[in-house]
Amino acid sequence: MSATLELVSSQRCFGGWQRRFRHASASTRCEMTFSVYLPPQAQAGARVPALYWLSGLTCTDENFSTKAGAQRAAAELGLALVIPDTSPRGAHVADAERYDLGQGAGFYLNATQAPWSEHYRMEDYIVDELPALLEAELPIGPLRAISGHSMGGHGALTLAMRHPGRYVSASAFAPIVNPADTPWGQQAFAAYLGEAREAWLAHDASQLMATVAHRLPLRVDQGGGDSFLPEQLQPDVLCAAAKAHGWALDYTLHPDYDHSYYFIASLIEAHLRFHAGHLARA
Amino acid sequence: MSATLELVSSQRCFGGWQRRFRHASASTRCEMTFSVYLPPQAQAGARVPALYWLSGLTCTDENFSTKAGAQRAAAELGLALVIPDTSPRGAHVADAERYDLGQGAGFYLNATQAPWSEHYRMEDYIVDELPALLEAELPIGPLRAISGHSMGGHGALTLAMRHPGRYVSASAFAPIVNPADTPWGQQAFAAYLGEAREAWLAHDASQLMATVAHRLPLRVDQGGGDSFLPEQLQPDVLCAAAKAHGWALDYTLHPDYDHSYYFIASLIEAHLRFHAGHLARA
Protein backbone atom coordinates (compact mmCIF):
# COMPACT_ATOMS: atom_id res chain seq x y z
CA MET A 1 0.00 0.00 0.00
CA SER A 2 2.60 2.54 1.09
CA ALA A 3 5.97 2.81 2.73
CA THR A 4 4.66 5.41 5.14
CA LEU A 5 1.21 4.03 5.95
CA GLU A 6 0.86 0.73 7.81
CA LEU A 7 -2.52 -0.89 7.24
CA VAL A 8 -3.96 -1.96 10.62
CA SER A 9 -7.33 -3.27 9.46
CA SER A 10 -9.56 -3.22 6.40
CA GLN A 11 -13.26 -4.03 6.48
CA ARG A 12 -15.86 -3.95 3.75
CA CYS A 13 -18.65 -1.49 4.52
CA PHE A 14 -21.49 -0.22 2.30
CA GLY A 15 -19.63 -1.26 -0.82
CA GLY A 16 -16.47 0.62 0.21
CA TRP A 17 -13.73 0.00 2.77
CA GLN A 18 -13.37 1.06 6.38
CA ARG A 19 -9.64 1.09 7.09
CA ARG A 20 -7.26 1.94 9.93
CA PHE A 21 -3.70 3.09 9.33
CA ARG A 22 -0.71 3.71 11.57
CA HIS A 23 2.15 6.02 10.65
CA ALA A 24 5.04 7.99 12.14
CA SER A 25 3.96 11.61 12.40
CA ALA A 26 6.49 14.39 11.95
CA SER A 27 4.10 16.89 13.54
CA THR A 28 3.38 15.05 16.76
CA ARG A 29 6.67 13.10 16.88
CA CYS A 30 4.87 9.88 17.73
CA GLU A 31 3.02 7.09 16.03
CA MET A 32 -0.50 8.14 15.04
CA THR A 33 -3.45 5.92 14.14
CA PHE A 34 -6.34 7.15 12.02
CA SER A 35 -9.38 5.65 10.32
CA VAL A 36 -10.62 6.35 6.84
CA TYR A 37 -13.72 5.29 4.97
CA LEU A 38 -13.21 4.96 1.23
CA PRO A 39 -16.54 4.95 -0.60
CA PRO A 40 -17.17 2.75 -3.67
CA GLN A 41 -16.40 5.70 -5.94
CA ALA A 42 -12.79 5.68 -4.67
CA GLN A 43 -12.31 2.08 -5.80
CA ALA A 44 -12.42 2.82 -9.51
CA GLY A 45 -9.22 4.83 -9.48
CA ALA A 46 -11.06 8.09 -8.95
CA ARG A 47 -10.01 10.57 -6.29
CA VAL A 48 -12.90 11.59 -4.03
CA PRO A 49 -13.38 14.61 -1.77
CA ALA A 50 -12.90 14.08 1.95
CA LEU A 51 -14.81 15.02 5.06
CA TYR A 52 -12.49 15.29 8.04
CA TRP A 53 -14.18 14.30 11.28
CA LEU A 54 -12.76 15.51 14.59
CA SER A 55 -13.97 13.59 17.64
CA GLY A 56 -14.66 14.74 21.18
CA LEU A 57 -12.92 14.31 24.53
CA THR A 58 -11.77 10.75 25.39
CA CYS A 59 -12.44 9.46 21.84
CA THR A 60 -10.06 7.70 19.49
CA ASP A 61 -10.46 7.33 15.72
CA GLU A 62 -12.87 4.44 16.32
CA ASN A 63 -15.85 6.08 18.04
CA PHE A 64 -17.13 7.82 14.93
CA SER A 65 -16.30 4.86 12.67
CA THR A 66 -18.34 2.41 14.71
CA LYS A 67 -21.18 4.53 16.11
CA ALA A 68 -22.16 7.35 13.74
CA GLY A 69 -23.47 5.28 10.84
CA ALA A 70 -21.92 7.81 8.45
CA GLN A 71 -20.66 5.32 5.89
CA ARG A 72 -24.08 4.77 4.31
CA ALA A 73 -24.50 8.37 3.17
CA ALA A 74 -20.77 8.69 2.43
CA ALA A 75 -21.06 5.73 0.05
CA GLU A 76 -24.05 7.29 -1.66
CA LEU A 77 -22.41 10.72 -1.96
CA GLY A 78 -18.91 9.53 -2.85
CA LEU A 79 -17.24 11.14 0.16
CA ALA A 80 -14.22 9.78 1.97
CA LEU A 81 -14.38 10.07 5.75
CA VAL A 82 -11.07 10.85 7.47
CA ILE A 83 -11.11 10.27 11.21
CA PRO A 84 -7.95 11.21 13.09
CA ASP A 85 -7.21 10.50 16.72
CA THR A 86 -7.88 13.24 19.29
CA SER A 87 -4.27 13.69 20.47
CA PRO A 88 -0.78 12.28 20.27
CA ARG A 89 -0.47 8.96 22.12
CA GLY A 90 2.17 6.85 23.79
CA ALA A 91 3.98 6.14 27.03
CA HIS A 92 6.51 8.89 26.18
CA VAL A 93 3.79 11.48 25.45
CA ALA A 94 2.81 13.89 28.24
CA ASP A 95 -0.53 13.12 29.84
CA ALA A 96 -2.77 14.23 32.70
CA GLU A 97 -4.97 12.39 35.16
CA ARG A 98 -8.07 14.33 34.10
CA TYR A 99 -10.08 13.23 31.07
CA ASP A 100 -10.15 16.69 29.51
CA LEU A 101 -6.41 17.31 29.21
CA GLY A 102 -3.57 15.35 27.64
CA GLN A 103 -4.05 12.12 25.71
CA GLY A 104 -7.56 12.00 24.22
CA ALA A 105 -7.91 15.77 24.66
CA GLY A 106 -5.58 17.55 22.24
CA PHE A 107 -8.03 20.36 21.38
CA TYR A 108 -6.69 20.48 17.79
CA LEU A 109 -4.05 23.15 18.41
CA ASN A 110 -0.27 23.41 18.57
CA ALA A 111 0.72 23.64 22.23
CA THR A 112 3.32 26.26 23.10
CA GLN A 113 3.91 25.31 26.74
CA ALA A 114 6.05 22.56 28.25
CA PRO A 115 5.60 19.65 28.63
CA TRP A 116 2.84 19.71 25.97
CA SER A 117 4.68 21.49 23.15
CA GLU A 118 6.86 18.49 22.32
CA HIS A 119 4.05 16.30 20.93
CA TYR A 120 0.76 18.22 21.07
CA ARG A 121 0.85 19.71 17.57
CA MET A 122 -2.55 18.53 16.40
CA GLU A 123 -3.24 21.61 14.29
CA ASP A 124 -0.21 20.97 12.09
CA TYR A 125 -1.11 17.30 11.99
CA ILE A 126 -4.75 17.75 10.95
CA VAL A 127 -4.39 20.73 8.65
CA ASP A 128 -1.13 19.94 6.84
CA GLU A 129 0.52 16.59 7.48
CA LEU A 130 -2.50 14.28 7.29
CA PRO A 131 -4.05 15.76 4.10
CA ALA A 132 -0.67 15.75 2.35
CA LEU A 133 -0.19 12.11 3.30
CA LEU A 134 -3.69 11.02 2.30
CA GLU A 135 -3.73 12.90 -0.97
CA ALA A 136 -0.41 11.30 -1.89
CA GLU A 137 -1.14 7.75 -0.75
CA LEU A 138 -4.89 7.18 -1.06
CA PRO A 139 -7.52 7.90 -3.75
CA ILE A 140 -8.46 11.13 -2.00
CA GLY A 141 -8.41 14.47 -3.79
CA PRO A 142 -7.70 17.96 -2.43
CA LEU A 143 -11.32 19.03 -1.85
CA ARG A 144 -11.90 18.98 1.90
CA ALA A 145 -14.71 19.70 4.34
CA ILE A 146 -14.51 19.41 8.11
CA SER A 147 -16.89 18.47 10.91
CA GLY A 148 -16.71 17.32 14.49
CA HIS A 149 -18.35 16.80 17.86
CA SER A 150 -17.91 18.76 21.09
CA MET A 151 -14.12 19.35 21.39
CA GLY A 152 -14.02 18.20 17.76
CA GLY A 153 -16.70 20.72 16.85
CA HIS A 154 -14.42 23.38 18.30
CA GLY A 155 -11.63 21.91 16.18
CA ALA A 156 -13.69 21.89 12.98
CA LEU A 157 -14.88 25.49 13.36
CA THR A 158 -11.55 26.97 14.43
CA LEU A 159 -9.36 25.09 11.94
CA ALA A 160 -11.69 26.05 9.08
CA MET A 161 -11.62 29.71 10.13
CA ARG A 162 -7.88 29.79 10.86
CA HIS A 163 -6.93 28.22 7.49
CA PRO A 164 -8.79 29.98 4.69
CA GLY A 165 -9.16 27.84 1.60
CA ARG A 166 -8.26 24.54 3.28
CA TYR A 167 -11.90 23.54 3.79
CA VAL A 168 -14.90 24.22 1.57
CA SER A 169 -17.38 24.02 4.45
CA ALA A 170 -17.43 23.30 8.17
CA SER A 171 -20.02 21.87 10.55
CA ALA A 172 -20.29 20.77 14.14
CA PHE A 173 -22.41 18.79 16.56
CA ALA A 174 -22.66 20.29 20.04
CA PRO A 175 -19.37 22.20 19.64
CA ILE A 176 -17.38 24.06 22.26
CA VAL A 177 -17.83 27.49 20.69
CA ASN A 178 -16.23 29.85 23.22
CA PRO A 179 -13.43 27.88 24.90
CA ALA A 180 -11.76 31.05 26.19
CA ASP A 181 -14.78 31.57 28.44
CA THR A 182 -15.91 28.06 29.38
CA PRO A 183 -14.32 25.50 31.73
CA TRP A 184 -13.14 22.75 29.36
CA GLY A 185 -11.46 25.28 27.10
CA GLN A 186 -10.01 27.42 29.86
CA GLN A 187 -8.19 24.59 31.61
CA ALA A 188 -6.89 23.16 28.33
CA PHE A 189 -5.81 26.52 26.90
CA ALA A 190 -4.05 27.46 30.15
CA ALA A 191 -2.05 24.23 29.94
CA TYR A 192 -1.37 24.16 26.20
CA LEU A 193 -1.11 27.90 25.42
CA GLY A 194 -0.21 29.49 28.77
CA GLU A 195 -2.08 31.92 30.97
CA ALA A 196 -2.19 34.87 28.54
CA ARG A 197 -5.78 35.15 27.32
CA GLU A 198 -4.75 36.83 24.06
CA ALA A 199 -3.29 33.55 22.82
CA TRP A 200 -6.58 31.80 23.55
CA LEU A 201 -8.71 34.08 21.40
CA ALA A 202 -7.11 32.83 18.19
CA HIS A 203 -8.50 29.37 19.02
CA ASP A 204 -12.00 30.46 20.00
CA ALA A 205 -14.62 30.13 17.23
CA SER A 206 -16.82 32.95 18.53
CA GLN A 207 -13.83 35.30 18.79
CA LEU A 208 -12.52 34.29 15.35
CA MET A 209 -15.77 35.39 13.76
CA ALA A 210 -14.81 38.97 14.58
CA THR A 211 -11.34 38.81 13.04
CA VAL A 212 -11.43 36.30 10.15
CA ALA A 213 -12.32 37.87 6.80
CA HIS A 214 -12.66 34.67 4.76
CA ARG A 215 -16.22 33.32 4.95
CA LEU A 216 -17.28 29.70 4.49
CA PRO A 217 -20.59 27.89 4.98
CA LEU A 218 -21.14 26.76 8.58
CA ARG A 219 -23.70 24.40 10.06
CA VAL A 220 -24.13 23.67 13.78
CA ASP A 221 -26.62 21.33 15.46
CA GLN A 222 -27.13 21.18 19.19
CA GLY A 223 -29.23 18.87 21.36
CA GLY A 224 -31.58 20.63 23.77
CA GLY A 225 -31.25 17.82 26.31
CA ASP A 226 -27.44 17.93 26.30
CA SER A 227 -26.24 18.15 29.91
CA PHE A 228 -23.17 20.17 28.81
CA LEU A 229 -25.26 22.80 27.03
CA PRO A 230 -25.52 25.59 29.64
CA GLU A 231 -21.99 25.56 31.07
CA GLN A 232 -19.63 24.13 28.44
CA LEU A 233 -21.30 24.69 25.07
CA GLN A 234 -23.29 27.96 24.99
CA PRO A 235 -24.19 27.99 21.28
CA ASP A 236 -25.94 31.35 21.73
CA VAL A 237 -22.52 32.97 21.96
CA LEU A 238 -21.60 31.64 18.51
CA CYS A 239 -24.97 32.64 17.07
CA ALA A 240 -24.57 36.19 18.41
CA ALA A 241 -21.05 36.46 16.98
CA ALA A 242 -22.24 35.16 13.60
CA LYS A 243 -25.01 37.75 13.53
CA ALA A 244 -22.71 40.56 14.62
CA HIS A 245 -20.07 39.77 12.03
CA GLY A 246 -22.10 38.64 9.05
CA TRP A 247 -21.45 34.91 9.03
CA ALA A 248 -24.10 32.67 7.44
CA LEU A 249 -24.47 30.12 10.24
CA ASP A 250 -27.10 27.40 9.84
CA TYR A 251 -27.87 26.66 13.51
CA THR A 252 -30.59 24.37 14.86
CA LEU A 253 -31.47 23.38 18.43
CA HIS A 254 -33.05 19.92 18.64
CA PRO A 255 -35.23 19.44 21.73
CA ASP A 256 -34.41 16.45 23.97
CA TYR A 257 -31.35 15.18 22.08
CA ASP A 258 -28.32 14.60 24.31
CA HIS A 259 -24.52 14.73 23.79
CA SER A 260 -24.19 11.11 22.60
CA TYR A 261 -23.59 9.40 19.30
CA TYR A 262 -27.35 8.79 19.05
CA PHE A 263 -27.61 12.53 18.37
CA ILE A 264 -24.78 12.44 15.85
CA ALA A 265 -26.22 9.37 14.10
CA SER A 266 -29.61 11.06 13.81
CA LEU A 267 -28.17 14.04 11.91
CA ILE A 268 -24.99 12.84 10.24
CA GLU A 269 -26.68 12.27 6.89
CA ALA A 270 -27.85 15.91 6.86
CA HIS A 271 -24.29 17.08 7.58
CA LEU A 272 -22.85 14.89 4.83
CA ARG A 273 -25.40 16.27 2.36
CA PHE A 274 -24.55 19.83 3.48
CA HIS A 275 -20.86 19.25 2.79
CA ALA A 276 -21.40 17.25 -0.41
CA GLY A 277 -23.46 20.10 -1.81
CA HIS A 278 -20.75 22.66 -1.11
CA LEU A 279 -17.98 20.35 -2.32
CA ALA A 280 -19.84 19.76 -5.58
CA ARG A 281 -19.97 23.51 -6.18
CA ALA A 282 -16.34 24.12 -5.18
CA MET B 1 -43.28 4.10 33.64
CA SER B 2 -43.93 0.69 35.17
CA ALA B 3 -43.67 -1.18 38.44
CA THR B 4 -41.84 -4.02 36.73
CA LEU B 5 -39.56 -2.12 34.36
CA GLU B 6 -36.82 0.12 35.71
CA LEU B 7 -35.72 2.75 33.18
CA VAL B 8 -31.91 2.79 33.02
CA SER B 9 -31.47 5.37 30.25
CA SER B 10 -33.49 7.17 27.61
CA GLN B 11 -31.97 8.93 24.63
CA ARG B 12 -33.57 10.69 21.71
CA CYS B 13 -32.68 9.04 18.40
CA PHE B 14 -34.10 9.63 14.90
CA GLY B 15 -37.23 11.22 16.34
CA GLY B 16 -37.90 8.26 18.64
CA TRP B 17 -36.32 7.01 21.86
CA GLN B 18 -33.50 4.56 22.51
CA ARG B 19 -34.10 3.17 25.99
CA ARG B 20 -32.57 0.62 28.37
CA PHE B 21 -34.63 -1.18 31.00
CA ARG B 22 -33.79 -3.47 33.90
CA HIS B 23 -36.22 -5.97 35.38
CA ALA B 24 -36.41 -9.10 37.50
CA SER B 25 -36.87 -12.06 35.18
CA ALA B 26 -38.92 -15.06 36.28
CA SER B 27 -37.44 -17.17 33.47
CA THR B 28 -33.77 -16.59 34.20
CA ARG B 29 -34.18 -15.91 37.95
CA CYS B 30 -31.89 -12.90 37.75
CA GLU B 31 -31.99 -9.26 36.83
CA MET B 32 -32.03 -8.77 33.07
CA THR B 33 -31.21 -5.61 31.10
CA PHE B 34 -32.52 -5.01 27.60
CA SER B 35 -32.61 -2.15 25.10
CA VAL B 36 -35.53 -1.03 23.00
CA TYR B 37 -35.87 1.52 20.26
CA LEU B 38 -39.31 3.10 20.10
CA PRO B 39 -39.86 4.80 16.73
CA PRO B 40 -41.75 8.10 16.39
CA GLN B 41 -44.92 6.19 15.47
CA ALA B 42 -44.96 4.66 18.98
CA GLN B 43 -45.07 8.10 20.60
CA ALA B 44 -48.58 8.95 19.45
CA GLY B 45 -50.22 6.25 21.53
CA ALA B 46 -50.07 3.73 18.69
CA ARG B 47 -48.76 0.21 19.21
CA VAL B 48 -46.07 -0.72 16.70
CA PRO B 49 -44.75 -4.11 15.55
CA ALA B 50 -41.41 -5.24 16.96
CA LEU B 51 -38.27 -6.71 15.49
CA TYR B 52 -36.44 -8.79 18.09
CA TRP B 53 -32.68 -8.69 17.62
CA LEU B 54 -30.52 -11.45 19.09
CA SER B 55 -26.83 -10.62 19.38
CA GLY B 56 -23.77 -12.80 19.05
CA LEU B 57 -21.21 -14.23 21.44
CA THR B 58 -19.79 -11.79 24.04
CA CYS B 59 -22.37 -9.09 23.22
CA THR B 60 -24.76 -7.32 25.56
CA ASP B 61 -27.90 -5.41 24.60
CA GLU B 62 -25.72 -2.42 23.67
CA ASN B 63 -23.67 -3.65 20.70
CA PHE B 64 -26.55 -3.59 18.25
CA SER B 65 -28.00 -0.37 19.68
CA THR B 66 -24.78 1.58 19.23
CA LYS B 67 -23.20 0.00 16.13
CA ALA B 68 -25.82 -1.25 13.66
CA GLY B 69 -27.39 2.07 12.71
CA ALA B 70 -30.78 0.34 12.62
CA GLN B 71 -32.77 3.15 14.21
CA ARG B 72 -32.92 5.24 11.03
CA ALA B 73 -34.83 2.65 9.02
CA ALA B 74 -36.82 1.58 12.09
CA ALA B 75 -37.99 5.19 12.49
CA GLU B 76 -39.01 5.36 8.85
CA LEU B 77 -40.81 2.00 8.94
CA GLY B 78 -42.44 2.35 12.35
CA LEU B 79 -40.75 -0.71 13.82
CA ALA B 80 -39.72 -1.10 17.45
CA LEU B 81 -36.34 -2.79 17.96
CA VAL B 82 -36.14 -5.10 20.97
CA ILE B 83 -32.58 -6.02 21.93
CA PRO B 84 -32.21 -8.51 24.79
CA ASP B 85 -28.99 -9.52 26.48
CA THR B 86 -27.26 -12.72 25.32
CA SER B 87 -27.50 -14.62 28.62
CA PRO B 88 -28.44 -14.34 32.26
CA ARG B 89 -25.92 -12.25 34.22
CA GLY B 90 -24.68 -11.81 37.75
CA ALA B 91 -22.17 -12.98 40.32
CA HIS B 92 -24.56 -15.80 41.34
CA VAL B 93 -25.06 -16.99 37.74
CA ALA B 94 -22.94 -19.91 36.48
CA ASP B 95 -20.17 -18.88 34.12
CA ALA B 96 -17.19 -20.31 32.25
CA GLU B 97 -13.73 -18.99 31.49
CA ARG B 98 -14.21 -19.39 27.75
CA TYR B 99 -15.96 -16.67 25.74
CA ASP B 100 -18.33 -19.07 24.01
CA LEU B 101 -20.02 -20.58 27.07
CA GLY B 102 -21.80 -19.07 30.06
CA GLN B 103 -22.43 -15.35 30.49
CA GLY B 104 -22.59 -13.65 27.10
CA ALA B 105 -23.16 -17.03 25.40
CA GLY B 106 -26.62 -18.32 26.31
CA PHE B 107 -27.41 -19.73 22.84
CA TYR B 108 -31.11 -18.81 23.23
CA LEU B 109 -32.19 -22.14 24.69
CA ASN B 110 -33.38 -23.55 28.02
CA ALA B 111 -30.49 -25.46 29.57
CA THR B 112 -31.31 -28.84 31.05
CA GLN B 113 -27.97 -29.61 32.69
CA ALA B 114 -26.52 -28.43 36.02
CA PRO B 115 -25.20 -25.90 36.80
CA TRP B 116 -26.68 -24.10 33.76
CA SER B 117 -30.32 -25.08 34.15
CA GLU B 118 -30.94 -22.79 37.11
CA HIS B 119 -30.62 -19.50 35.16
CA TYR B 120 -29.97 -20.29 31.50
CA ARG B 121 -33.56 -20.24 30.29
CA MET B 122 -33.15 -17.77 27.45
CA GLU B 123 -35.71 -19.43 25.18
CA ASP B 124 -38.50 -18.90 27.72
CA TYR B 125 -37.24 -15.39 28.32
CA ILE B 126 -37.09 -14.32 24.67
CA VAL B 127 -40.15 -16.12 23.35
CA ASP B 128 -42.61 -15.68 26.22
CA GLU B 129 -41.60 -13.48 29.13
CA LEU B 130 -40.12 -10.51 27.30
CA PRO B 131 -42.87 -10.10 24.66
CA ALA B 132 -45.57 -10.40 27.35
CA LEU B 133 -43.82 -7.73 29.39
CA LEU B 134 -43.24 -5.36 26.48
CA GLU B 135 -46.71 -5.73 25.03
CA ALA B 136 -48.20 -4.94 28.46
CA GLU B 137 -45.90 -2.07 29.43
CA LEU B 138 -44.76 -0.35 26.21
CA PRO B 139 -46.52 0.83 23.01
CA ILE B 140 -45.59 -2.42 21.27
CA GLY B 141 -48.19 -4.66 19.65
CA PRO B 142 -48.20 -8.43 19.19
CA LEU B 143 -46.80 -8.54 15.65
CA ARG B 144 -43.20 -9.79 15.91
CA ALA B 145 -40.31 -10.55 13.62
CA ILE B 146 -36.89 -11.82 14.67
CA SER B 147 -33.34 -11.40 13.48
CA GLY B 148 -29.84 -11.84 14.82
CA HIS B 149 -26.13 -12.23 14.23
CA SER B 150 -23.95 -15.32 14.51
CA MET B 151 -25.09 -17.06 17.76
CA GLY B 152 -28.05 -14.68 17.56
CA GLY B 153 -28.72 -15.73 13.98
CA HIS B 154 -28.93 -19.29 15.28
CA GLY B 155 -31.34 -17.99 17.92
CA ALA B 156 -33.52 -16.13 15.44
CA LEU B 157 -33.83 -19.07 13.04
CA THR B 158 -34.39 -21.75 15.66
CA LEU B 159 -36.82 -19.78 17.84
CA ALA B 160 -38.89 -18.82 14.79
CA MET B 161 -39.03 -22.45 13.65
CA ARG B 162 -39.65 -23.89 17.12
CA HIS B 163 -42.53 -21.49 17.91
CA PRO B 164 -44.92 -21.38 14.96
CA GLY B 165 -46.97 -18.19 14.86
CA ARG B 166 -44.80 -16.24 17.29
CA TYR B 167 -42.85 -14.51 14.51
CA VAL B 168 -44.04 -13.36 11.10
CA SER B 169 -40.57 -13.58 9.55
CA ALA B 170 -37.00 -14.40 10.55
CA SER B 171 -33.61 -13.33 9.28
CA ALA B 172 -29.98 -13.69 10.19
CA PHE B 173 -26.53 -12.27 9.55
CA ALA B 174 -23.75 -14.86 9.44
CA PRO B 175 -25.75 -17.34 11.56
CA ILE B 176 -24.59 -20.56 13.15
CA VAL B 177 -26.84 -22.84 11.09
CA ASN B 178 -25.78 -26.34 12.13
CA PRO B 179 -24.64 -26.09 15.75
CA ALA B 180 -24.95 -29.85 16.27
CA ASP B 181 -22.09 -30.30 13.82
CA THR B 182 -19.85 -27.25 14.38
CA PRO B 183 -17.52 -26.41 17.28
CA TRP B 184 -19.24 -23.43 18.93
CA GLY B 185 -22.56 -25.25 18.99
CA GLN B 186 -21.19 -28.61 20.01
CA GLN B 187 -19.38 -27.36 23.10
CA ALA B 188 -22.35 -25.21 24.16
CA PHE B 189 -24.96 -27.89 23.53
CA ALA B 190 -22.89 -30.49 25.40
CA ALA B 191 -22.81 -28.18 28.43
CA TYR B 192 -26.38 -26.86 28.30
CA LEU B 193 -28.24 -29.89 26.91
CA GLY B 194 -26.00 -32.85 27.79
CA GLU B 195 -24.12 -35.28 25.60
CA ALA B 196 -27.11 -36.88 23.84
CA ARG B 197 -27.10 -35.60 20.26
CA GLU B 198 -30.87 -36.11 19.86
CA ALA B 199 -31.50 -33.18 22.20
CA TRP B 200 -29.26 -30.97 20.09
CA LEU B 201 -31.15 -31.52 16.85
CA ALA B 202 -34.19 -29.64 18.13
CA HIS B 203 -32.00 -26.52 18.39
CA ASP B 204 -30.27 -26.84 15.02
CA ALA B 205 -31.78 -24.72 12.23
CA SER B 206 -30.71 -27.03 9.43
CA GLN B 207 -32.15 -30.06 11.23
CA LEU B 208 -35.38 -28.24 12.12
CA MET B 209 -36.05 -27.61 8.43
CA ALA B 210 -36.68 -31.34 8.07
CA THR B 211 -39.15 -31.58 10.93
CA VAL B 212 -41.00 -28.28 11.24
CA ALA B 213 -44.16 -28.08 9.15
CA HIS B 214 -44.95 -24.38 9.68
CA ARG B 215 -43.22 -22.24 7.05
CA LEU B 216 -42.23 -18.58 7.44
CA PRO B 217 -40.15 -16.22 5.27
CA LEU B 218 -36.41 -16.50 5.95
CA ARG B 219 -33.55 -14.27 4.86
CA VAL B 220 -29.88 -14.95 5.53
CA ASP B 221 -26.86 -12.83 4.55
CA GLN B 222 -23.29 -14.02 4.91
CA GLY B 223 -19.98 -12.23 4.39
CA GLY B 224 -17.57 -14.02 2.08
CA GLY B 225 -14.57 -12.66 3.99
CA ASP B 226 -15.87 -13.86 7.36
CA SER B 227 -13.08 -15.80 9.09
CA PHE B 228 -15.67 -18.04 10.83
CA LEU B 229 -17.34 -19.04 7.55
CA PRO B 230 -15.72 -22.41 6.76
CA GLU B 231 -15.60 -23.97 10.23
CA GLN B 232 -18.32 -22.39 12.39
CA LEU B 233 -20.96 -21.08 9.99
CA GLN B 234 -21.32 -23.32 6.91
CA PRO B 235 -24.36 -21.63 5.31
CA ASP B 236 -24.36 -24.21 2.52
CA VAL B 237 -25.75 -26.74 4.99
CA LEU B 238 -28.76 -24.49 5.63
CA CYS B 239 -29.24 -23.82 1.92
CA ALA B 240 -29.20 -27.55 1.17
CA ALA B 241 -31.72 -28.27 3.94
CA ALA B 242 -33.97 -25.46 2.69
CA LYS B 243 -33.89 -26.87 -0.82
CA ALA B 244 -34.48 -30.45 0.36
CA HIS B 245 -37.46 -29.52 2.51
CA GLY B 246 -39.11 -26.76 0.52
CA TRP B 247 -38.26 -23.69 2.57
CA ALA B 248 -38.16 -20.34 0.75
CA LEU B 249 -34.80 -19.11 1.97
CA ASP B 250 -33.49 -15.81 0.59
CA TYR B 251 -29.74 -16.37 0.94
CA THR B 252 -26.96 -14.09 -0.31
CA LEU B 253 -23.18 -14.38 0.01
CA HIS B 254 -21.46 -10.97 -0.02
CA PRO B 255 -17.83 -11.11 -1.16
CA ASP B 256 -15.22 -9.62 1.20
CA TYR B 257 -17.56 -8.68 4.07
CA ASP B 258 -16.42 -9.92 7.47
CA HIS B 259 -18.15 -10.92 10.72
CA SER B 260 -18.27 -7.40 12.17
CA TYR B 261 -20.95 -4.80 12.71
CA TYR B 262 -19.76 -3.08 9.53
CA PHE B 263 -21.35 -5.99 7.70
CA ILE B 264 -24.53 -5.76 9.76
CA ALA B 265 -24.74 -1.98 9.30
CA SER B 266 -24.36 -2.37 5.52
CA LEU B 267 -27.41 -4.64 5.29
CA ILE B 268 -29.61 -3.87 8.28
CA GLU B 269 -31.90 -1.58 6.28
CA ALA B 270 -32.59 -4.39 3.81
CA HIS B 271 -33.46 -6.73 6.70
CA LEU B 272 -35.77 -4.17 8.29
CA ARG B 273 -37.56 -3.67 4.96
CA PHE B 274 -37.86 -7.46 4.55
CA HIS B 275 -39.53 -7.76 7.95
CA ALA B 276 -41.65 -4.61 7.59
CA GLY B 277 -43.07 -5.95 4.35
CA HIS B 278 -44.08 -9.26 5.92
CA LEU B 279 -45.40 -7.57 9.07
CA ALA B 280 -47.54 -5.24 6.95
CA ARG B 281 -49.14 -8.24 5.24
CA ALA B 282 -49.62 -10.25 8.45
How far apart are the termini of chain A?
Answer: 30 Å
What percent of residues of chain A are in strands?
A: 15-25%
CATH topology of chain A: Rossmann fold
Helix content of chain A: 25-40%
CATH superfamily of chain A: Alpha/Beta hydrolase fold, catalytic domain
Uncertain residue ranges of chain A: none
The CATH architecture assignment of chain A turns out to be 3-Layer(aba) Sandwich
Question: Largest interface, and how many residues on either side?
Answer: A-B, 24 and 24 residues
Succession of helices and strands of chain A: EEEEHHEHEHEHHHEHHEH
Total helices of chain A: the number is 10
Form type of chain A: globular
Reported for the largest beta sheet of chain A, the result is:
9 strands, mixed
Please state the CA-atom Rg of chain A, rounded to the nearest Å. Answer: 17 Å
Q: Enumerate the strands of the largest sheet of chain A in spatial order, edge to edge or round the barrel.
A: 1-2-3-5-4-6-7-8-9
Report the oligomer: homodimer
Function (chains A, B): Serine hydrolase involved in the detoxification of formaldehyde.
Protein name (chains A, B): S-formylglutathione hydrolase
InterPro entries (chains A, B): AB_hydrolase_fold, Esterase-like, S-formylglutathione_hydrol
Catalytic activity (chains A, B): S-formylglutathione + H2O = formate + glutathione + H(+)
